Every structure is written in structure tokens, then in C-alpha cells.
Amino acid sequence: MSDPTCLPFAFPSVRGKKLTAAFDGGRLTSDGGVLLLAQAAQRRGIAEKLAAVIPDRRDPSRVLHPLPEILLARILAIACGYEDADDLDHLRADPAFKLACGRLPDSGADLMSQPTVSRLENTPGLRDLIRLGRVLVDLYCASYAVPPAAVTLDIDDTCDVVHGQQQLSLFNAHHAERCFLPIHVYDTATSRPVAMILRPGKTPSGREVRGQLRRLVRATVSYTHL
Fold first, then answer.
1. Is 71 helix (H, G, I), strand (E, B) or coil?
2. Residues 186, 193: contact at Cβ < 8 Å?
3. pLDDT in tens, 203-214
4. What long-range pairs does 47-55 form, CB within 8 A, spacing at least 24?
5. What confidence tens digit (pLDDT) does each residue in 113-132 have?
6. Distance CA 143, CA 116 (A)
7. Which InterPro entries match (predicted)?
8. How far is 98 from 117, CA to CA, in rounded Å?
9. Residue 64: helix, strand or coil by DSSP?
10. pTM surpassing 0.85?
């Protein structure tokens, strides 16, 4: 009988240290899957590409946490269900999250704390946000080995309920909730995400949707035969 605890894949080394999955104790984490997410994110260079379009106005001589690392930790935390920035206050010492961000679990320094994440999230301006959105579209386009002859996009808004008085959250009568109403765009043929646009909790007008479509078409036209 095969051993059900054997993993059918190997993790890459971190700073020259071998990484082995085992079940015999030691420092434990409940988020081992974050290592798989980190491999996927690093393979596509998601954090690095996002960081490249955000201005970093910090004093380089005093920087402890590079922008790509902050973004990667935040992305991985959200993907694991930790949506609040202050979750990083305890995840920063988690061995799996440290490994996922390229730091050794014991001897490596802890990851960033919530204030560092919050300062980053309040840094980008409108133009930076547009560039961040363009990075996501570029990642989608690059997911095709060969540009498709045509692309059909599914565009819809989704009720994102808030629990407080967050900026831009509004009461939406249709959903009977105070919420954001982000626009999600997917490729109907592959179900791949194309873009997500955070917006106030009011139903988007046709003019707003046309504007988003125009930007998406401009961003994807070089990859397709439209």
C-alpha cells in the first residue's frame, strides 16, 4: 500500500535551505497551502509586477520590507481567508507564511506588521490604481500561449457587504445591504479572471460600464485579433 502522507511534489529551496513537508511535529502552521499559492504567484511574478507600478517614497536606507514582499504577504493572506491587514500581526511570525515570502521560519526576520501594510494600501493614487488594474489585465493576456482569435468577456457587479462605515460604501436598495459593488470581468471561454474593479455600492451606469470596456479593449487588443 502506498504511503498516503507522501507528497507527489517537492517544494523549492529557500535561501539554500531544503524544504521538506512532514507530519512529525516541530513548529506547526495551519496554513501549509500558502506555499502552493506562493509558488503560483512567484511563477507569474505577480507581486513584482504590481510593485513595479507603485511609487515607493520610503527612505531606501531604512526599508526592512521591500514592496514585492509586502504585496506578496498581503495577497497570500487574503487568499488564505485573512482579509484584514491586522491579521498580519500574528501571521508575520507564522513559519509557512515566512517561507512563502522567502524567509526562513526560525532564523529569518518576521514579516511586516499591520501598520506597514496599511501605509502601503494608502499610498497609491488614482493613476497608480489604474496601472495596477492594467497589470492584472496583462497577466490575463500573458496566460495565453497563443493569442485567441476572439475573446468574450462576462462583466458583472458583485455585492461586497461591509460591516462599518468604510469610505465609498453605500446602501444598495436592491441588495438591501451597505456594501461595495465591485465589477468582476471574466473570460467566458476559460473562466479566467481578467479584471476586478473596486467601486462604490451603487449600481454601475451604462456609461461607466462602457468606459471600463473601452479600457479593457485597449489593453487586450495587442494580444488578440479583434
1. helix
2. yes
3. 888 888 888 888
4. 47/71, 47/72, 47/75, 49/135, 49/138, 49/139, 50/132, 50/135, 52/135, 53/128, 53/131, 53/132, 53/134, 53/135, 54/120, 54/123, 54/124, 54/128, 54/132, 55/123, 55/128
5. 999 999 998 888 888 988 99
6. 32
7. Tnp_DDE_dom, Transpos_IS1380
8. 16
9. coil
10. no
